Amino acid sequence: MQAAIDADDTAPKLVLKHARERGDRPAFREKDLGIWQTWTWRQMAAEIRAMACGLAALGIQRGDRIAIIGDNRPQLYWAFDAIQAIGAVPVPLYADSVAAEMQYVLAHAEVKLAFCENQEQIDKVLSVRDQMLSLEHLIYEDPRGMRHYAQPFIHALEQVEAQGRAYDQAHPEFFEAEVAKGKGEDVAIIAYTSGTTGNPKGVLLTFDNLLNSARLASEMEKLSDREEILAYLPLAWVGDHFFSVAQQHVTGFTVNCPESSDTVMLDLRDIGPTFFLAPPAIFENFLTQIRIRMEDASWLKRKLVNFFLGVAGRCGVELLEGRRVALKDRLLYALGEFLVYGPLKNNLGYSRIRIAYTGGAPLGEEVFNFYRSIGLNLKQLYGQTESSAYVCIQRDGDVKADTVGRPCPGVELKITEDGEIVYKSPGNFVGYFKNDEATRETLDADGWVHTGDAGIIDDDGHLKVIDRAKDVGQLSDGTLFAPQYIENKLKFFPYIREAVAHGAGRDHVACFINIDLEAVSNWAERRGISYTNFADLASRDQVYELIGGCIEEVNRTLAQDSALRGSQIKRFLLLHKELDADDGELTRTRKLRRRIIAERYAALIEALYSERDHVEVESQVTFEDGRKGVLAADLKLREARTFGREATERRAA
Amino acid sequence: MAAVAQHKGREVAAGEVLLNVENISLSFGAVQALIDVSFDIRKGEIRAIIGPNGAGKTSMLNVVNGFYHPRHGQIVYKGRVRQQMRPHEAAAQGISRTFQNVALFRGMTTLDNIMTGRNLKMNRWKANLLPAALYVGWTRSEEMKQRAFVERIIDFLEIEAIRKTPVGRLPYGLQKRVELGRALAAEPELLLLDEPMAGMNIEEKQDMCRFILDVNDEFGTTIALIEHDMGVVMDISDRVVVLDHGVKIADGTPDQVKNNRDVIDAYLGVSHD
């Protein structure tokens, strides 16, 4: 049995290994009541043992599916190992999903037990429990507000662990024997993809998928057990599972959990992680905030920052990659590091970061280069749930802003004749749970995963992802139309939070813009423009002019590229409400759900392609408590300036 | 609202009388603010005081916490007659309050503002001026003890993210929450809330409702609150007393009060001659 445990081929076995080899090193930290609490590997292993035995005492069998619902808490991460230790399969769910979304996954996975963080999640599960025949138990971690729940099937984690310890004493061989039964090819988790279309699909990932990919990635980046990371991204997202669980298990580094989801920025500064992953939206938001604060700063500070950011823009990226830079710039950059970049990074909590990743969606070239120029080793990665997040990672010193780098070690990648990216990765999933048809569509007989992304491999062997293959289209005159490419250019402006470009099959491109409330309200305040709410602000003529200016800039850059010149934006409108995941317009990872937006705002799209200069709209909104309401508005439609072949300026028709 | 539904399900704590207001009259010059008002507050309940503008609600709270002294009548608190009491004495006896207009130290952080609420709970010998200035060992351990308590309140009210933010920079809804935190820091037996939800949007109101119910539930604190939002009052309070022009016109459960003829008249503005 000991030989089986030493095989290190499952996550629980690795926990036992770390508990032996680095038992006193911190495995987890969490800020609680203002103080960082630490759990060593040995303590973590003991907690997992108690939890696992407690689950067994409740009657959980090998192969049962167990949901994990909540924010990033150490106990919820340990639940993964505890569930896996006794051969059951964890199914993480997005904590901010509404009850109806949860119901689909809970029912589809035939979940037997739901491991919830707190009352909020328990209430959601209870509200859909009637339709769930398989669901036998609920466990909660945080007892607050739970005093009046007398149902016998709801258990406090503390009780479950206490029962587990008793069970462990009665059956001392049980835990090790169960862990030893686990094998690398067993399903480790079922990760439901949020999906921009249709119902979520349950991606089956094995221990081999996750741990082998994580080992290769950790070797490539030379990760050690001294890394510190902050686990703040949804734990149902495969990216977080790869970094906070798989990589932690193979290297033994420390995972830090924030005090609450609102304090992430403060906790980031406390911890100073060495290894950091963030979706593009976070880097974009930081940059927007930096710009807002800069505009509010005194004249001298503004001058100083602008000057040194100019220096960084000139030579920062070259210095990061160790290329040759003139002595004068070298000296100026050193001064800038002391005066501007260093304090800026320190303020964001980035001072100790050795490797930062962004992924999930493309990051604007300008934003990307900004961070690299101030000395942050920011790299893009490309992955999918179906590959355990492991396909391409940019290598140190070999980074191009508009690509996602070369395939990772062990990954084969090619572009099909239709221009679709396909790959074979050690992280390749074994199939979708209870959905063979979808599995056959995505995973072909030769083991290639079809991504649905359109891409090209450039001369240096770097992968360039253009767009979702099904989104790339043509205007009626045959011009290439890549909506995401245009939208990303728009989103670089701090005043624009989201953009939706339309144009497939039309004679020109038109778009919806979601203003960034924080940036635009700050802008309006300084100009003495008063407004009552989001919709009012978004309907102001001055704001239309501001956004019109941004669009003009984008058109100017599009005009420089012969293939894209025809896809300049001719007409636009500012949406009266923010696109929101609660309304189904974005996925939980903030990707546009184009089909739903196109259906819901069909009237607006038609108006954009008509001669009208305003359009009335009513749309449904979902409040945080799940209630729905209707928002009515009268939206203005405006034309944007476009540019011709020699950039000779002309007014749009 | 799950919290409210759940609250309705609990059995109303029919505790003994904590505070008895007996025949209180209060006047400012010729203006009669309160005329012969009597009611009681029982241990563990949420008691609402409602009424139209100028009905004497805030005056009533001010009498309870000793800021105003009634011309007639008396207040019996925990079985003892209480007269001519000053606000700080009321506070020492376990009565805390929040104000209609937020009354915090705007330049101080959330944490420091709530710490001020611990003032009464500090050990006088360990934390008086000289040892505090020298910050000797026992002062330090005293401060850590108080800080630990304040952190529990911060956690309870979910304001970790603004722990170090000066309250002047916070939106109004959060300032109200900090003020509630400061009142809780004194570990009150009776908590007086003067329009805790005034000027809030729906979401902030729902949050505040939940916190009030949780305070009542988790700490067993008795709560007397003034509120204009009838929906809120009917949802969260156990018993309601209605004042109009300084006179008590109704007293009972939310349902009894809602159907009371005088109350309907007072709110619809029937003339009083």
Walk me through this protein's architecture.
- The complex is a heterodimer of chains A (about 650) and B (about 270).
- Chain A is of the alpha/beta class.
- Among the domains of chain A are: about 1-25 and about 40-210, 3-Layer(aba) Sandwich (Rossmann fold), CATH 3.40.50.12780; about 475-650, 2-Layer Sandwich (GMP Synthetase, Chain A, domain 3).
- Chain A is built from 22 helices and 30 strands.
- Chain A has a five-stranded parallel beta sheet, sandwiched between helices. A four-stranded mixed beta sheet of chain A has the order 2-1-11-10, sandwiched between helices.
- Chain A is globular.
- Chain A starts with a helix and ends with a strand.
- Residues about 650-653 of chain A have low confidence and may be disordered.
- Chain B is of the alpha/beta class.
- Chain B has two domains: about 1-95 and about 190-210 and about 220-275, Rossmann fold, CATH 3.40.50; about 105-185, no CATH class.
- Chain B is built from eleven helices and ten strands.
- Chain B has helices spanning about 1-10, 55-65, 85-90, 110-115, 130-135, 135-155, 170-185, 200-220, 230-235, 255-260, 260-270, and strands spanning about 15-30, 30-40, 45-50, 70-75, 80, 95-100, 190-195, 220-225, 240-245, 245-250.
- A six-stranded mixed beta sheet of chain B has the order 6-7-8-3-9-10, with helices on both faces. In chain B, strands 2-1-4-5 form a four-stranded antiparallel beta sheet, covered by helices on one side.
- In chain B, helix 4 runs parallel beside helix 7 (about 170-185).
- The longest helix of chain B has 20 residues, at about 135-155.
- Chain B is globular, with a radius of gyration of 19 Å.
- Chain B starts with a helix and ends in a 5-residue tail after the last helix.
- The interface of A and B includes residues 32, 33, 34, 623 and 624 of A.
Mind sketching the topology for me?
The complex is a heterodimer of chains A (653) and B (273).
Chain A (H helix, E strand, L loop, with lengths): L1 H4 L5 H11 L4 E7 L2 E6 H17 L7 E5 L4 H12 L3 E5 L5 H10 L2 E6 L2 H9 L9 E4 L13 E3 H14 L3 H8 L5 E6 L9 E5 H14 L7 E3 L7 H14 L2 E4 L6 H8 L3 E4 L1 H17 L2 H22 L6 H22 L6 E4 L6 H9 L4 E5 L9 E2 L18 E4 L4 E5 L6 E2 L3 H7 L6 E9 L5 E6 L4 E2 L5 E2 L1 H9 L4 E7 L6 E7 L1 H10 L7 H5 L2 H19 L9 E6 L19 H7 L1 H7 L5 E9 L5 E9 L1 E2 L2 E2 L5 E2 L3
Helix pairs in contact in A: 2-3, 2-4, 3-4, 3-7, 9-10, 13-14, 13-15
Chain B lengths: L1 H8 L7 E12 L2 E12 L3 E5 L6 H8 L7 E6 L2 E3 L4 H6 L2 E4 L11 H7 L12 H6 L2 H20 L15 H14 L4 E5 L7 H17 L3 E5 L3 H7 L2 E6 L2 E6 L1 H5 L2 H8 L5
Parallel strand pairs in B: 3-8, 3-9, 6-7, 7-8
Antiparallel strand pairs in B: 1-2, 1-4, 4-5, 9-10
